[in-house]
Design goal:
The chain has one domain. It is built from eight helices and no strands. Helix 1 packs antiparallel against helix 8 and helix 7 packs antiparallel against helix 8.
Length: 212
């Protein structure tokens, strides 16, 4: 299992910048400008982006996580190396996100196009989907060895949460700082949980093998 080092802490830099902007509103004009720029894609991208943003909703994340958990549990294949760590990561990410939203309580942008409840910072869609797909990617890279499939997994599981975050700006329910902070926190949680989980998992596995 690859060990993640101190450099993973650099993921806190974009989160910290997003937090600073959220608290000070120092570049609110820029954030409105990003929204206006993306809205130039409307209405052509409305249907596609609405589908993507629904896929990244709390319900969507729960369904995908439960499917992974149940399928790996039923087949008894990769449950401890994929299903369980992914479920733990998603649960922890959701708890962290709700806590941050309640503590910071940043209002949603006034220019939002669709309805959204909860507070704005950090973006739950961005954080939870990034945590889900990055954790899933890290787990699958442990068992997938073919270079072609490893590349496909990397592109797909990085691009999807990035696109989900962009749709949140497109619909005006989040500022860009909310989304960047969400991405940052999601990646950090995925890496941290993945590292801690497999460190414990491998230690237990080694002890069992030693007793055998």
């Amino acid at each position: 299992m690859k060990k993640y080092n101190f450099w993973s802490l650099l993921l806190f830099i974009p989160f910290g910048l997003g937090l600073y902007v959220a608290l000070t509103e120092c570049i609110s004009g820029f954030e409105r400008g990003v929204f206006d720029l993306l809205r130039n894609l409307a209405p052509a991208m409305d249907i596609l982006f609405r589908g993507i943003t629904k896929l990244g909703s709390a319900v969507g994340v729960i369904i995908i996580t439960v499917l992974i958990f149940v399928i790996t549990a039923i087949t008894r294949k990769y449950f401890f190396t994929v299903g369980l760590p992914v479920a733990i990561t998603v649960i922890i990410s959701r708890i962290v996100n709700i806590t941050l939203k309640n503590v910071l309580d940043r209002p949603r942008p006034e220019f939002k196009v669709i309805f959204a409840d909860e507070s704005s910072f950090p973006s739950g869609h961005s954080q939870n989907n990034m945590a889900l797909y990055i954790c899933l990617l890290l787990c699958l890279l442990l068992v997938v060895t073919a270079p072609k499939w490893r590349l496909i997994l990397k592109v797909a599981f990085i691009a999807l949460p990035l696109l989900i975050g962009i749709t949140r700006i497109y619909f005006g329910v989040h500022y860009i700082s909310d989304v960047i902070a969400g991405w940052s926190m999601g990646v950090f949680i995925a890496i941290l949980i993945n590292y801690l989980y497999f460190r414990i998992y491998n230690n237990i596995k080694d002890k069992r093998n030693a007793k055998a």
